[in-house]
Amino acid sequence: MRGAAAVAGVGQTTYWKWGQADEPEFKLALRAIMAACEDAGISPSEIDGFASYSNDRTEASRLAAALGIDELKYAVMQWGGGGGGAAGAVANAAAAIATGQADCVVAFRALAQGQFGRFGQGPRRNTISGANAHTVPYGLMSPAQMFAMRVNRFMHDHGVDQSALRAISLASYQHAQTNPAATMYGKPLTAEQYDESRWIVEPFHIYDCCQENDGAAAIILVSAERAADLAHRPTYVLGAVSGSHHRVGAPVHNDPLYATSSFTTVAPRLYEMAGVTPADVDVVQSYENFTGGVLMAVVEHGFCEPEQANEFFTLDNLLAPDGDFPLNTSGGNLAEAYMHGLGLTIEAIRQIRGTSPNQLRAADGGVDVSMMIAGPMVTPVSSVIFGSDATIEGIGA
Amino acid sequence: MSGYLADGLPVPVPSSDGRDAPYWEALAENRLVLQRCNNCRGWQWGPEWICHRCRSFDLGWEETEATGVIYSHERVWHPVHPALKDHGPFVIVLVELPQCDGVRVVGNLLGDPMQDLVIGTPVTGVFEHHRDHDPPYTLLQWRVD
């Protein structure tokens, strides 16, 4: 699959605080897809497939009819919750193109939580059964609570300090200050504000938790050959994989490894497919559902040993363009918007194109190898590596 | 308020397929039973229809002592459910049961919510009955030895 598919275009709507979108969810999806078509310079008629995740309510067949596409060849939903499929949707789209099942596939996510329920709320009923009956009556019901338990164990095992989580949060907020599309544009965060902010569940302050937002984002993928004819600097899918290790989904917190972001087997498969190593990766977008997930995901993708985390996760090290490990360069889920990760995937593409609000230096305007890590701690998780022209004939080819 | 947490959270009922009914029935009798494979004798939790080790469908329920060690913990501050508004911080622990192949269960840690939380601390189970509730139910809570 390496290099078979490439990005034709990307599109996004305005990002709102949750519940404040001024248009319905389906219309937001249409707007993001139309914006991606315009960015690509292609007609919506070329689209023949849709890929989404996390039980997206916007149905592929309704989109196909509304957009009047000629033929629907591919409609796939990645199983799993949260943003575990924000790279998996790209993987599924690229797989369809690589195997000839479709030629032009849109990976998208759309959210209007005023029109529908709020994402991630605890259950509002009198009784509960199944696996949740063994957690919810003890007050364990929100994503923050599900994941803080894993992160506490990881921080204990490896001696990681709160300062590592704080650096991840501050980096996102600082990067958002040069991104006019970010919901936290013009709202910087200081270390003091972070330290004094309220706890949600230890070790997460409120600034360790993703926002909740309305909006939509879309990425159009085509074959590498078709992309060569289009306007933008080609951005190839070098590798894109999903999954999780042995029994991550064991109920009632019985994942045998437990103190993990679920990438222990996924990351090695990603590097193998992409033909690159961690040292080749120029910039990383790592999905912040919670900063602790970023911590573990970056470790599990081989960028730092867990025992080095306190030295590695410092604000200076995580900032573009001068840090050694620029992270979440558009503001991420914390400070750009929480499009369940698809916004981070688009930022990974912008870094190749040379159009990031915090662009990394590169001779021809963009970086060559750009990674996006999706949905740490859920199952399945996913991650993707995009590459420039140089990677197709260069590293690992 | 009749338990560690305020009343009003969803209360547990056995799953409609009956998979975990023996667990809830035993808790009401101050006993902890968990799933154990009759073929390979491995313990398994949460409950499933098949043994994940030997893939036998012949799974039984076996009683064990309600003792374990804190595998992980969290102090919760934000009330995500209306019943916990104004409740204040509370502690959830993930308890490992070494005598049952290290399977884990979730409960609250009784006592001062600001107490030090230390991974590896031995804890003992406390059966928290809500017999007057409709439907009645029992939770398994934990206390530092």
Give a structural overview.
- Chain A contains 14 helices and 13 strands.
- Helices cover 31% and strands 18% of the residues of chain A.
- In chain A, β12 and β13 (381-387) form a beta hairpin.
- Chain A starts with a strand and ends with a helix.
- Chain A is of the alpha/beta class and 397 residues long.
- Chain A has helices spanning 25-40, 60-67, 88-98, 143-158, 162-176, 191-196, 224-227, 266-274, 291-300, 309-312, 315-318, 332-336, 342-353, 389-393; strands spanning 5-12, 16-17, 49-53, 74-78, 104-111, 127-128, 199-201, 204-205, 213-223, 236-243, 283-286, 369-374, 381-387.
- The mean pLDDT of chain A is 94.
- In chain A, the strands form 3 sheets. In chain A, strands 1, 2, 3, 4, 5 and 9 form a 6-stranded mixed β-sheet that branches.
- Chain B is mostly beta strands and 145 residues long.
- Chain B has one domain (21-144).
- Chain B is built from 1 helix and 9 strands.
- Chain B has one helix at 21-28; strands spanning 11-12, 32-37, 43-44, 59-64, 67-76, 90-97, 103-108, 122-130, 137-144.
- In chain B, the strands form 2 sheets. In chain B, strands 7-6-5-8-9 form a 5-stranded antiparallel β-sheet. Chain B has a 3-stranded antiparallel β-sheet with strand order 3-2-4.
- In chain B, β8 (122-130) and β9 (137-144) form a beta hairpin.
- The interface between A and B is large, with 42 and 41 residues.
- Which spans of chain B have pLDDT < 50 for at least 5 consecutive residues? none
Morphology of chain A: globular
Biggest sheet character of chain A: 6 strands, mixed
SS class of chain A: alpha/beta
